[in-house]
Design brief:
single chain, alpha/beta, Rossmann fold, 3 domains, 6-stranded parallel β-sheet, Thiamin_PyroP_enz_TPP-bd_dom, THDP-binding
Length: about 550
């Protein structure tokens, strides 16, 4: 058994189902992964491969840790962005980039994964001794699975792949969860029970902990409104009377209203990173409680009054028990009716202000009309959705309502154009019964659009929605193309829609095509309209 076969054996033992990336890497070239029972998927661009693995990790709440592989040199350079995105989104991946042979590892200007991946991974190692293959990869999987989940990288110099490896009996790694300090739970309960208007803010940690039920239970127990981060979108059902929607650069008015009305803001499973794509906690006349499984998040950007470290589900369950034991089963804070009525009033006024674009009959089609039709046409029990960076995000985040956990894969701090295509391909691989839809613009499809062919070749029937307004976002940079024809030329189904009255029917056809196993690209010719066109309606 050589090192290549040993790595493939470990991948299979760890439950890896997919090896995604690009040759030349012996895990692909020598059929080692496939012979070990791991499905190889070759993409058109390395970073899209990492995005697919990111999608798998996130739709499975971090339980499915998959593997990425690529060529030394150019392949590793191309893949850095995808690994960086997974790092930013706390998505667990084990990346196995090839490296230059050991004799050339430190020769300038050869690209070193060992050096350059360190800033965008949880751990980075170089495997130089074939006797260490077992322990090295055990560390990588253990690192990726536990604590704050993020990519672990093992660079394998290309000459090491072919060296003999010792026989071994591999023992798979495990996942652990950290519980909260009981004293911190007691203090948090004191603050929440003493609040006139507590507001809960749920991040992606709620998804990774599968803490959706105790989050709803705590909200209903406290009669407290719930907002989510964009990464946490769908952690709380947005049709619930206490829902405020998701915070982002473009967010529902009721969210902003209640965040600033709250006297206690409880962030659970979030980082409270200072970003344009999240909320800004009020810094005066309120109490900020921060619960996260990563102590490094606490006080990083915003000073918290209380910190509760631990797995989101364990924290929420402990709080529900603590508060329930104190107040009994018949708790009535007397604010539920007033709070839910105020949410509905603010939300309805906001929707009324935006109704002219959401219901617009103009041509080219108003992009908000496309989002409204997606929202009303897609079955929320079956959908997984996302939106790319820029205007697509700003259109979708506030107006596409989600009701089921993990039915929206948002993203945090920054993101790469074209991220959504790989993200939904990963979601579809793990949840083939779901309708997986991503919305992007002209810029995003230019970055990763060729990997639509990967979806066709690998039988991954996603729906790509392209908002084609013949420009790059708000930068007045003219782009053009007939993207529906492109989809057809790649072997998928493409449709170009110019009439707003045909939007819903096109979406329904797309869903049926994916059920038949065909990837779909819907190209909507849209107006050059952005969120910035409505600065008066924030």
């Amino acid at each position: 058994m050589n090192v290549t076969d040993a790595i493939a054996k470990i991948l299979a033992e760890e439950g890896v189902e997919h090896l995604i990336g690009f040759p030349s890497n012996p895990l692909f070239d020598d059929d080692a992964a496939e012979e070990a029972g791991v499905r190889p998927i070759v993409v058109r661009q390395e970073r899209t491969g990492a995005h697919i693995l990111d999608g798998i990790a996130r739709i499975t709440s971090g339980e499915q840790v998959e593997a990425f592989a690529c060529q030394h040199g150019p392949g590793t350079e191309n893949s850095v962005g995808g690994i960086a995105q997974a790092y930013a989104e706390s998505a667990p991946i084990v990346a196995i980039p090839a490296g230059y042979s050991r004799a050339k590892t430190n020769t300038d200007p050869k690209f070193s994964s060992l050096i350059n991946y360190q800033a965008v991974s949880k751990t980075t190692e170089q495997l130089t001794d074939p006797d260490a293959v077992e322990e090295t990869f055990r560390r990588a999987f253990q690192t990726a699975r536990n604590g704050r989940q993020r990519p672990a990288v093992v660079e394998v110099p290309k000459d090491v792949f072919h060296l003999d490896a010792p026989d071994f009996d591999y023992e798979t790694t495990s996942s652990t969860r950290a519980g909260p300090d009981p004293h911190a739970i007691s203090e948090a309960a004191d603050a929440l029970l003493g609040a006139d208007l507590p507001v809960l803010y749920a991040g992606q940690g709620v998804h990774y902990a599968k803490a959706w039920e105790p989050l709803t239970e705590l909200a209903e127990l406290l009669e407290a409104p719930v907002a989510t981060s964009l990464n946490g979108k769908s952690a709380f059902p947005e049709d619930h009377p206490l829902s405020l929607g998701a915070g982002s650069k473009s967010e529902p008015r009721q969210l902003n209203h209640f965040i600033h009305e709250a006297d206690v803001l409880f962030g659970i499973g979030c980082s409270f990173t200072k970003t344009a794509y999240g909320i800004t906690p009020p810094t005066e006349d309120n109490t900020l409680i921060h619960s996260t499984n990563d102590p490094g998040d606490v006080d990083k950007d915003y000073k918290s009054d209380l910190a509760v470290i631990g797995d989101a589900k364990l924290v929420l369950e402990a709080l529900v028990d603590e508060i329930g034991n104190r107040v009994g089963d018949d708790t009535d804070f007397g604010r539920y009716d007033d709070v839910t009525a105020e949410i509905e009033e603010v939300e309805q006024a906001w929707l009324d202000d935006w109704s002219d674009v959401l219901e617009s009959d103009e041509t080219p089609i108003n992009p908000y009309r496309v989002v409204k039709e997606l929202d009303e046409t897609l079955d929320k029990d079956e959908v997984v959705a996302t939106a790319d960076a820029g205007n697509a995000r700003d259109f979708m985040a506030p107006f596409f309502e989600v009701t089921e956990p993990l039915s929206y894969l948002g993203w945090g701090k920054t993101t790469q154009l074209g991220y959504g295509l790989g993200l939904m391909m990963g979601a579809k691989l793990s949840k083939p019964e779901k309708t997986c839809v991503h919305v992007m613009g002209d810029g995003a499809i230019g970055m990763t659009g060729m990997d639509f062919e990967t979806a066709v070749r690998e039988d991954i029937p996603i729906i790509a929605v392209v908002l084609n307004n013949f420009e790059m976002a708000s930068y007045d940079t003219p782009f053009s193309g007939h993207y529906a024809d492109f989809a057809e030329s790649m072997g998928g189904y493409g449709e170009r829609i110019e009439d707003p009255d045909n939007v819903a029917d096109a979406i329904e056809r797309a869903v049926e095509k994916t059920k038949e196993g065909t990837p779909v690209l819907l190209e909507f010719l849209t107006a050059q309209y952005t969120k910035l066109s409505r600065p008066d309606l924030e």
